[in-house]
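Curious: why this fold?
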Amino acid sequence: MLQKLHDILIVAGGVMATMLTACSSEEPLAEEPKGDLFVTIEARSPRASEDATSDVHSDLTLQEGIVLIYDENGVYEGGDRIDADKRVASLRIPEGQKHIVVLANAPKILRDRVAIDCHTPITDEYGNVKTYKGDTVWSNIKPMYRYYAELKSSLSFSDKVLQSVQSSHRMVLIHDNIVNVAADEEDSKTSYVEIPLAPPMARVDLHARCLPSETSRIAGAAIRVSKAYTKLNWDLSYPNDETTNTVEVKFADVSDKMTPVVTENELFSDWILENVKEDSPIASLYTYYTDTNAVLEIGLLFKGSVEYDWYPIQMSELLKPGEYKGLEAGHLYQIFITIYPDKVGHIIVDPWVVPSNLEFTIG
């Protein structure tokens, strides 16, 4: 079995701890901030603008996002929504070491645990409203937690988040790291920070070719990964008490997505990449990253059958020795198969043989 592997480049004291849950109309006494910078945060979505004519990586396009900034002590300083068209958010904060958290394309079940949409004045750690030149500094979000430690301990990636990504085909993108925010050399009042976003999941696409007369025989296609984890901690580690499960997705009416070939000789020859419906796989599955114990299988439902026929994919044999580490987060695995009947009518599923002069990574 052949697999094309894309690396997704990653160019995306004494204050009582409280959970901030609602907008407040009360404005404490204002305090003029000292030395605030006008900071532009640019979120860099992996591969989103790589090829404007292709939808292969459309799930990585930044649709919406939020940024939260905590100071070196883990106290919330500011945050805002990210402009999806420009992929930026602008706000005023003091320079220095910051813990910056960005969450993009998140389903509501996850986003609501980070911040709520709310036009609210930004306050310092003592509750004083921040101002700039006498005007209140506003934000369009309100964090659920004032302290980074509380935020981090409250977040995780659940099976419902995974299911949401599968149904929406919109990849969750995150960033959580320490960044030094400093004034630009040419302008001491401004700062520009570029934030790379990364997905916590892998994606597996299934493509298939066959003779035109065979396309109607395929009623459905499926992908499943067994011995996989369906939950992750926020730092992308596996929960200590989590057991492995099976992630499976099935697609009906796939005949029109099959790639037909004209002759039987062509069926067994090297494939012409331009003929591949690369942005329209017959099945596509998202999974949190796995270890090497996970088992990847593809399934085909033939017309007249009620059960899928399953074909295991030997990933360790597809990659060079020692390279397979499991399905890795931030990777797109494209599996190409050839489907044809043998002399007695049995269906055979074989891998495509890709010409060596085609420049893409083969695992």
Q: What stands out?
A: The two ends are 9 Å apart (CA to CA). Confidence is low (pLDDT under 50) at residues 1-19, 25-34, 351-363. The CA atoms of residues 74 and 149 lie 7 Å apart. DSSP finds five helices and 23 strands in the chain.
